[in-house]
Amino acid sequence: MKDNNLKFLIGTLYSVENEFDECIISIKNQNYKNFEHVVFSGMENREAHNTLYNHFMQNSQYFDVFVKVDADMIIEDVYFLDKLNSYLNKNLEISRLIIPVFDYYTDSDIAGVNVYRNDVKWDTNINERYFVDRIEISATIKKIKTELFTFKNSITHCKNPNIHQTYMFGYHRTLKAFQPEIFLPKLESSNWKRFHYIYKHKLNIPAYHQVFYGIYDAITFSESTKFNSYKYQLNKTSVERHFFSFLRLLFSSFHPNLSYVTVYILVRLKFIMDFLIKKLQFLTFQNEAGGD
Q1: Cα gap 127→272, rounded to integer Å
Q2: In sequence order, which residues have a C-beta less than 8 Å from that of residue 27 and are 6 or more positions away?
Q3: How far, in whole angstroms, is CA 246 from its chain's centroid?
Q4: How many CB atoms lie within 10 A of CB 11?
Q5: Which of the four CATH numbers 1.10.10.10, 2.70.40.10, 1.10.260.40, 3.90.550.10 does domain 8-157 have?
Q6: Residue-wise pLDDT tens digits, 53-93
Q7: What pTM value is reported for the model?
Q8: Where in the sequence of the chain do the CATH 3.90.550.10 domains occur?
Q9: What pairs with residue 102 in β-bridges?
Q10: If we measure between CA atoms, which residue out of 155, 160, 150 comes closest to residue 102?
Q11: Distance (Å, rounded) from C-alpha 38 to C-alpha 55?
């Protein structure tokens, strides 16, 4: 039986990613041409995702399939959409397909591109701050499938990240573990493994240093929000244990006998110093403004 010629709507969210131009070119160069591509930019993360998902739902009668390709992804295979069309025709029961991408942070495959049938719906009114790409309404999904082999090596992720991307990688992945509503030890553990891999294998690339500034800022931001729920305290304790063990690993390459408590104090002192510097800068600004 001949495959149906499915019509795809590809959506991309852009926020100063280095790979954006290559991403656009890789989509335009697809051999399969029955698709349209829309880009949303200049929005905060949650607003951008909600805008994209609302656009998908508003256009469900005009397209068969929605594909979310991030601006830091490059489709390396010009026959990717051909393969996707064939795969979806043969697997009609799948509502959401997850396609791994080769991630340059970790030199491994990670969950990346999400593909949806046109009858999938999203709850864009949900109060979700961090996992903004997981707000599908479950009743509209018949089956979710992660396809590990058919599209292997078809798409790359963060091939040439800038310092903003690497900083946000550390910041967002750490902040997710500090949510007061959810306890996520499995995700948390996988993220620390990724940070450890970057430390061991990527620190010769200056841009990757920003990952660790992102981790630190996420920890101190979460401290300043002063969540009090029991689940948050569990999360906070667990994440800090991993975080300070990780920092000890960083410091130990220079000071093998540095204790856990010493590392904890060093980080807290840095947090206090950063706070005082910002406070002093603010007071200086106020005085100068008042003098005018």
Answers
A1: 31
A2: 10, 12, 35, 37, 69, 75
A3: 21
A4: 23
A5: 3.90.550.10
A6: 999 999 999 999 999 999 999 999 999 999 999 999 999 99
A7: 0.77
A8: 8-157
A9: 109, 156
A10: 155
A11: 9
